[in-house]
Amino acid sequence: MARDIKLPQLGQTMEEGTIVNILVSDGDKVEKGDVIFEVETDKATLEVESPAEGYVKKVLVKDGETIPVNTPMLIVGEKHEEIDQAYIDSLAGGENVGKIEPQKTAEPEATLAQPSGDADPSLKTVKLPQLGQTMEEGTVVNILVSPGDKIAKGDVVFEIETDKATLEMESPAEGFVKRVLVDDGETIPVNAPMLIVGAEDAVVSGEYVAAQTGDQAVAETEQTQQGPAERTSGPVKTPEGIRVVRLPQLGQTMEEGTVVNILIGSGDKVEKGDVIFEIETDKATLEMESPAEGIVKMVLVEDGETVPVNDPLLIVGEDGAEVSQAFVDSLRAGPGEQAVQAESKPAPEAKTQAPTQAAGPAKGGKVFASPRAKTIAQQQGVDISTVSPKPGAPRIVAADVLAAVQSGGAQSPAVLGERIPVNRLQKITGEKMLQSKRDIPCFYLTTQVDMTELVKLRSKANESASVKISFNDYIIRAVAKSLRHYPVMTGQLAGDFIQLAERIHVGLAIAVEDGLISPVIKDADQKDVAQIAEYSKSLIQRTKANQVTLDDLEGGCITISNLGGFGIHSFIPVVVPGQCSILGVGSIEDTCVPSGGNILVRKIMSLTLSVDHKVANGAEAAQFLDFIKKMLEHPAELDQ
């Protein structure tokens, strides 16, 4: 069967595109994913891949032509399939949509999107659009409208999670919401119906809903009972006046989070923006704000529980709104699943029940403790697994640790032969380093830098500086400027391309009580040395106080690891996954250097660069490292 390929929306704001290169001709065989056009949008020139395989029957556009999104560009079909000229003419005129048999000129999708028969002519069905070239399905993570709402064209009606991002979906139609056809958490294919809109007095019959959804049970239900149609299987519909708060993706790489602090309880009133949970990710402990206001109906998670992104955490609603047990069970069962054994096995209470004994966990077992309690325990040399929470409390807090220290009830620091539990940050660091060694083929470059002039410059600058400038601040500045000259060193392999960073963020490896964290200096190339010093001082303070945000930890192009303060001459650092390289900085040492027949004592520092060979070659990395060396040896150029 022949199929027309339309111009996809290659960006959220894209309305049209210009054909700058046609890469196929009539008769060519194309596979799914083959690049068939190059299209220029208002922001970039992008490749359009074929969403189907077959033989090119007709190219419908010309080089240099500007066409709107969803305009047919190409017809593909079977090798010996004949294409009716009327079909080609109808596509060229922009009348057809979707997949159409060539001998027909009717619009098959029109029966799904437009009313037919006795249905109200104002009704229109809104379907899930293809929000990206490779998108095949999406998960509804937020429903922003309800039946009866008036919406305008362009209003955001859903938040949809694809395989790459969470995006806002705008309404292509205006009117009043008559039916919402999807549920929170439901995953649906592209072009699945999501919403029915129409005139304020329009009536939606069960037959019309069934025609749109393909669910005949809807029509049968409406014929046998009064009231709106409901699904006969799958998740229970969200009650009126109720909203489910789910775990958001607090960072690009976040897949799950651990609830370390529940700050509200059932019956509490929350405002939009109130902090309701503390969530520990693979990078930091962060505050989670409420996206909605109302009364807390039920807390669905427990302290210490690890949940995937988009899992329900909380139910909020209007005062007086009721939440059925069936709805709660459907949330706990997950999207698209029926709750099992709901009657024989009672659902857990909203808040964690008091333990029968106020005792700490078994040695080496899981410890439920606040971040502050863990920090104090490490500072005091206390094994937190020996500390007990107060009777009835769900976890250990700072006061429990301090009480244990004062009473002498806590164990002393680890001794030889003892088994020390590995904390979460250590586990994450270990996993990342293993990933690096497994997936990143590295090579290593070392050079010696004469820091004599920079030592003098720094000493003079700090005489009047409001914030003391460290050697690291100068190194960050030199690295940032060097990345400007050698942008390939910001790259990451992405399929057949090397994707260069849009902005230069430099990571800084910082030792903390739990292990190692690498926050980033944002836009380091846009800051002078004094600004870098001020930024890095604040960043280090916040990191050591466990106050960094996920944004502080993401986007680094390169990381600097400095062990010079520990007297380390040189070392080989491990590249952070997601970055191209890492720079190891050694100590500055007095070294005898021959010069013109004399022996001079100079301040010499060792630099070691570990580089991902998938991204950069030896020559490129050597030039990059040499540029850093020259910048540090001629420090007057750093602020130019």
UniProtKB/TrEMBL annotation:
Boundaries of every Peripheral subunit-binding (PSBD) domain copy: 368-405
Keywords per UniProt: Acyltransferase, Lipoyl, Pyruvate, Transferase
Documented EC number(s): 2.3.1.-
Domain Lipoyl-binding: 2-77, 123-198, 242-317
GO CC annotation terms, alphabetical: pyruvate dehydrogenase complex
PROSITE patterns xref list: BIOTINYL_LIPOYL, LIPOYL, PSBD
GO biological process terms on file: pyruvate decarboxylation to acetyl-CoA
Cofactor field: (R)-lipoate
Region described as Disordered: 215-238, 334-367
Enzyme class: transferase
A Pfam family reported for this protein in Swiss-Prot or TrEMBL: Biotin_lipoyl
Signal peptide annotation: none
GO molecular function: acyltransferase activity
Gene3D superfamilies cross-referenced by the UniProt entry: 2.40.50.100, Chloramphenicol acetyltransferase-like domain (3.30.559.10), E3-binding domain (4.10.320.10)
Family the UniProt entry places it in: Belongs to the 2-oxoacid dehydrogenase family.
Protein name per Swiss-Prot or TrEMBL: Dihydrolipoamide acetyltransferase component of pyruvate dehydrogenase complex
Native organism: Anaerohalosphaera lusitana
